[in-house]
């Protein structure tokens, strides 16, 4: 399946589209860079793990999901592209909210953080409503139109997870036991609901694109039951976690929900694995997506076991294993892979530009992939002390260098666009 980056013949709209995706790519790269700097600085300056995690998950990944879920939904639903103004306004407001959350929590200003969370949640509700309106007004939807429903479920998860985050940030939850249960529910909703459901839905169409092959016939058939298993499983886990302070035996219910989510994730990979037998992965986006998906399955299996063991064990596992694996192995790696594929398609401006952007983004990708994944493996297996410092250094060298390449590719593209604007009419194309 091919996604049209811009309609033919309409140069004005094409330029606007390129400028929009350049801004979005720069925003994502900026947050990724900030997260890498915070991780690199954390041994010198006492910055909390919370900040790096939220720069990555709330800053970089949330911007990416908001921009590209709309882009993919338009393609899958064959929706007519109207004015981008409301989407631009939402993106501006989203980032104001994100910055308020980051500054509020880091600066111990609970009310500022809570106000930021309210803005983020309101923007995501508006974004989700715009996708629902798109579904309703698109009678000619393609075979994978169900993927748009993954984005709706993801939006609902962030609305709930962000509200819980706002309550925790404001300090309005007094009971430590309830705060522990809500923190776990917040982490599951945001990591596996907002980001996980968006990833699982998108991969049904992204895989054929990165492998440059046709979509497996099984993909549209499996997408529906996978959505029921993953979104349903997550809803069961979250409700069970929230009930834990009052009801006994809830850990088994929470673990059962996560087991269903894991089953859905494994099933969702089957169409891609069958296509890989015909077209093995050879490029940076394909390997990044594959490795990210493998880490997701590992993290889900560990999460299921942790939840079955009890709230305290699940909480310990979250900090020790799930945050590093999901943060670096899944979020940073999949974002890097997806941007390596999407930026050339959306901002390249034609075959020559696409090749240029791809060449920059794929620089030394094999070395970076090995370093990043070896770092994640070392982080979860090696003891505290210098081995873990070395593991973080490998992760930074592997995934933390990507934002620099993205900024280089985007600024080179902008410089060429400015040069073209100043060229006399009829000049040969810039190749
Ligand atoms: C509206 C936006 C958000 C707000 C206000 C918020 C706020 C918070 C707060 C206050 C905590 C600390 C709870 C505690 O330990 O007392 C927390 C933890 C956490 N948040 Fe968020 N958050 C937001 C969005 C996100 C997103 C999008 C993600 C997805 C990556 C995320 C992932 C996590 C995780 C995994 C933890 C647990 C951290 C740990 O236990 O060390 N949050 N969040």
Which stretches are poorly predicted, pLDDT < 50 over at least 5 residues?
1-7, 427-431
Helix content: over 70%
Give me the secondary-structure category.
mainly alpha
Q: Topology as H/E string?
A: HHHHHHHHHHHHHHH
Report the CATH topology name: Cytochrome C Oxidase, Chain A
Question: How many beta-strand segments?
Answer: 0
First and last CA, distance: 28 Å
Proper CATH architecture: Up-down Bundle
- Gyration radius, in Å: 21 Å
Mean of pLDDT: 87
Instruction: Name the CATH superfamily classification.
Output: Cytochrome c oxidase-like, subunit I domain
Q: For the report, how would you describe the main beta sheet?
A: none
Shape: globular
CATH top level? Mainly Alpha
Total count of domains:
1
Share of residues in strands = under 5%
**Count of DSSP H/I helices:** 15
Bound molecules: protoporphyrin IX containing FE
């Amino acid at each position: 399946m091919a996604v049209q980056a811009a309609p033919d013949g309409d140069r004005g709209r094409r330029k606007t589209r390129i400028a929009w995706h350049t801004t979005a790519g720069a925003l994502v790269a900026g947050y990724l860079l900030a997260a890498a700097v915070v991780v690199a600085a954390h041994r010198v300056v006492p910055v909390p793990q919370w900040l790096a995690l939220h720069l990555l998950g709330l800053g970089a990944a949330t911007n990416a999901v908001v921009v590209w879920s709309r882009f993919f939904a338009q393609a899958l639903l064959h929706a007519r592209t109207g004015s981008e103004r409301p989407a631009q306004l939402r993106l501006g407001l989203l980032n104001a909210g994100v910055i308020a959350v980051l500054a509020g929590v880091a600066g111990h200003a609970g009310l500022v953080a809570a106000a930021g969370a309210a803005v983020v949640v309101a923007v995501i509700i508006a974004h989700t409503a715009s996708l629902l309106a798109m579904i309703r007004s698109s009678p000619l939807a393609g075979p994978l139109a169900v993927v748009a429903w993954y984005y709706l479920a993801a939006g609902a998860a962030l609305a709930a997870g962000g509200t819980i985050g706002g309550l925790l940030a404001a300090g309005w939850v007094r009971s430590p036991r309830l705060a522990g249960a809500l923190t776990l529910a917040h982490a599951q909703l945001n990591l596996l609901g907002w980001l996980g459901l968006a990833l699982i839905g998108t991969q049904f169409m992204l895989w054929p694109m990165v492998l440059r092959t046709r979509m497996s016939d099984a993909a549209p058939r499996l997408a529906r039951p996978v959505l029921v298993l993953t979104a349903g499983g997550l809803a069961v886990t979250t409700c069970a976690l929230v009930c834990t302070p009052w009801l006994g035996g809830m850990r088994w219910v929470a673990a059962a929900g996560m087991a269903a989510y894991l089953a859905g994730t494994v099933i969702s990979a089957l169409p891609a694995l069958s296509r890989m037998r015909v077209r093995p992965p050879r490029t940076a986006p394909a390997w990044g997506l594959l490795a990210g998906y493998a880490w997701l399955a590992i993290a889900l299996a560990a999460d299921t076991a942790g939840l079955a063991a009890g709230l305290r064990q699940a909480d310990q596992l979250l900090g020790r294993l799930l945050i590093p694996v999901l943060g670096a192995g899944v979020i940073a790696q999949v974002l890097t892979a997806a941007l390596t594929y999407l930026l050339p398609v959306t901002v390249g401006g034609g075959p020559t530009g696409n090749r240029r952007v791809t060449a920059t983004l794929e620089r030394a990708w094999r070395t970076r992939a090995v370093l990043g994944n070896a770092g994640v493996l070392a982080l979860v297996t090696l003891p505290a002390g210098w081995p873990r410092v070395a593991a973080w250094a490998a992760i930074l060298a592997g995934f933390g260098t990507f934002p620099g390449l993205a900024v280089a590719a985007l600024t080179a593209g902008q410089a060429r666009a400015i040069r073209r604007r100043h060229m006399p009419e009829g000049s040969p194309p810039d190749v």
